[in-house]
Fold this protein.
Amino acid sequence: MNILVCVKAVLDLSNVSVSRGQGKIFEKGKRLLNPFDEHAVELALQLRQAAAGTVTALTVGEGRDEDALRKALAMGVDRAVFVKGPELDGSDHGVRARVIAKAMSALVAAPGGAPFELVLCGERSPEHGGGQVGPALAEALGRPQVYRGLRVRLDAGQVVAAVRTDDGESEVRVPLPALVVVDAAANHPRIPKALDIMKAVKREVRILACVELGLSPEDVGVAGSRLRLARFEIPEVKEDAAMA
Amino acid sequence: MDFTFTEEQQMLREMVRDFVNQEVKPRAAQIDREEKIPNELLRQAAELGLFGVSFPEEYGGAGAGKIGYCIAVEELAHGCNSLTTTIGASQSIGAMAIYLDGSEEQKQRYLVPLAKGEKLGAFCLSESNAGSDPAAMSTTAVKQGDHYVLNGSKNFITNGVRADVLIVFAITDKALRAHGGTTAFILEREYPGIRVGKVEDKMGLRGSDTASLFFEDVRVPASNVLGQLGKGFVTAMKCLDMGRLTLGAGCLGMAKEMLDLSVAYAKERVQFGEPIATKQAVQFMLAEMAMRIYAMESLVYRTAWAHENGQKISRESAIVKCFCTEAAEKVVDLALQIHGGMGYMKELPIERAYRDARINRIFEGTNEIQRLVIALDVIKKGRY
Amino acid sequence: MEIRILEETCTGCELCIPSCPFGALTMEDRLPGAPPPPPDSVTAKVARVWESCVDCDLCLPVCPPVAILHDRPEGTAAVPSTPGSGILVAGDLGPTGLRPSTRRVLRRARELANTLGCFLTCLLTPRVDPGTACKDAIACGADRVLLVDATDTNPEDGLGLPALLAPILAKEQPEIVLFPDSIRAAALAPRLAERLGAGLASPCHEVDLDLSTRQLLQRVPLFKGLGLGELVCAATRPQMAVLRTHQLPDPMPDGSRDGEIVQWNLRAEI
């Protein structure tokens, strides 16, 4: 069983300085693995144990986003893939989904590559909150999806899961290959061990460039995105008003 | 000169912080109240590698070095000083003695399980009549064939009740005493003749056990002599350098926690129609706290860096210990003042920190002894 | 079948093939006597439209040289003021009718439709008789309720609804599609957007209009609310957005409102 976990790097908001005037957030330390994606990594590691397979973590972004993969490696994934390039900056969720789909084809086509029967995504990110990459990726792959999986297991070529619904929970069963969007209540992500952290920093991260995936600069980043950030501002916070 | 933490150091900090926030903070009040750290919590800390952060991988550690270890202690102290002390006593001074001066065989037999947290260590130096003056110790070890026979007692031993591996200092040559007549021994808890005496009822650090230990004709194999015969004092001093440095790191973590709590409270607490953070009196207290924290942080990591790079830190660790314990005490006191009446209540962690902090000026060498060490060093050198 | 290929313009690039949900497009060799491939052709082949085409128009926007045409019979050309072209709310049905989140989105959509001077459609995909939900949607502001029978789609695998709805939306050509912030919509909207090649902002705490461009301004909190972003769909249509509903006001239903209830039947449309 070959499992892919899509992860995202997020800002460590406890370690930033904010300039309202410039409308910018300056990072002072490393980036974090999106806490919602940790649930997807945890599920992948649990399923790997049950189904004897490998887990690949993949992220799309620029240089510092590698920090998210280091955390995934420290948690125990088998390998990490980084689709990397400054041209990816400003990509909307649709671009990210299409880039991941291309990267999956490239990894499968590479020597020793095997298809990813299962793709896992987190339910959203604390930065933008949409959680659109998972379903958009499932669409790009033409795969069935299990949305907001709570208790997920594999059974005879099928994903069997209790999922969160608007009315509570329900039980679903979809055939592999599939994509699962993992609910934040699905599990309790493991905290990596000190030794595994030390080792994770030294492990190889496979870097893929957009050109290797057959993507041109117009396909990605702001150019390839259907959504454009027209304005960004940092509003005045109430407590600052009280302190002013 | 570079003061940025490496990626693994930042990840280590994040990891310990997650552990503290998820597992330690919710239990800290209970640990203080029930005077016991749950075994499950110690097992989790062991699993994460927190008992062997600084030791190399081949000895069961994480290989994160002394800076990594200080980071781990700092983060642990955000949550619970009793847990920090339990782990610190086992690692900084107990296991450290074996790492620094133990034979390869001793390291495999004792350091590996200590670093993995499978066993807990204790450092047994103090006696009822030998506190600041360890040379006055009266525990003796007499050679009988291929064994030493230990007799005497030790006092105020951290982990004295729980520890599986004891580093015990004893006089092997009454004529030389501290000057070549003291030897370190590795004792296993199961050795016949070891008895736990009084378990202390302390003001603070109530989750960390402190006890006296009695040794009555305890037969220790000669292979368990740690380091060279008669050089026990050298071993003890080297361990205490590390112990003082990491105590500084613990003070730093506790002080940061106090400031974080105080800032949050000052922004929330409204008096005279405004948050008290708008009051200059409170702002000045926050500034005093932040200044001390910055100084503590600078001291701890500069000294850890020096130690990591093989520099001798006897005087520097004394400065770290003395300054950080006093600065942290002041920070806790200010935090309590900002919190007002609520700070005095057990409902908040400030009251516990206030009690926990007081021992810092006393154990790991009193601050008066640290000042002597610092003063004698500058007098000897004739300059800074 | 009203879709036609301009053979002298088709570059044989094959981009249209995967865009068709019905497998109605293939690449074929050019027949003798057919126009030759244009000079910048990718391949010498030419696209062909088969009988399974339902004229959904999904292939139109993906063709770089604009070689795919929709020949509409006279008088049926899509103009912005036709009922389907305004704002569409993809609503959720709960066990007891329209979900409150959908009703709130309808209220906000009504305000937007009034501003734009356009039609408001509420799309519902019932698996059982929707009962009074249609009338409720009209009372909450919809001009028209479009019922699409979803009985035959698998509710578990997420594949069925986007495949069912994409051609309908492609035909309806709404300017704006709004979703409530339900779990169902969160699973559906990104797939549908991807299928339509449309932009989707999710979740927006507020949407507004730029009347000069008819652009939907989609306001989203970023970085845990530290920042506020305003997103727009640059060039693609429809403009799709998921709306946060917990702070939106409930509608004041007006039972006297007029509206039409339309049962969509894809096969009948062919």
